[in-house]
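Collaborator request log, item 7. Partner lab (contact: R.S.) asked for a structural prediction of TsaA-like domain-containing protein to inform their binding assays.
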Amino acid sequence: MNFEPFKITPVGFVRKEPETHIEILPEFWEATEGLREGDWVKLVLWFHGSDTPARRRILKVHPYGNPKNPLTGVFATRSPYRPNPIALYTVRIHRIEEGRLYIDEIDALDGTPVVDIKIFVERYDCPKEVPIEEREAEIRAGRMIGEVNIIPRKAEHLDELEEVSPEEYDALILEIGPKTTTLTAKELVELIDALNEVYESLPVEIRDKLRTRGARSP
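Returned to partner:
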């Protein structure tokens, strides 16, 4: 199967002075809305220095550039020599200024094009066995509240779960920033009770305003 070449547009560039940061091009700055200082993100870079026909044809390398290491396929290494010289980094945002994201030190050269930035999510980027598999999660019903993402489990086939206790039935995925956990049905009810207690402890004036706002909501 033949494909037309892909077009990749830089959204910014790595800069090393005065501190390591990503210089976001003005036309893409709006895409950073929602990022916060302290967030972990995935950077997708284009190693333009390795973007030559000869280097793209290199399919095996000595890992870490050490000839004592056996030749290994580039897909099993972090080598910059690849059919498509894409590099991935996981970094923390330390400071955000207009047009700049200050990040951890990385070994990419000054001027390296940045082709994408994605928020780090443990469930996707550090996969592990979780009680609720991806195919069982009702992704489209997920709700973002601040930095908390609530993803319920699909309600299909619940009639087959009559023998499962509330302590055993995992009801939802809870993401807080990059961290992921699951709550059983019993834990979900406990969380609801705890949140109700917090709500009831709010000043009366705040609760009155919240009720009024809720009454106006469609």
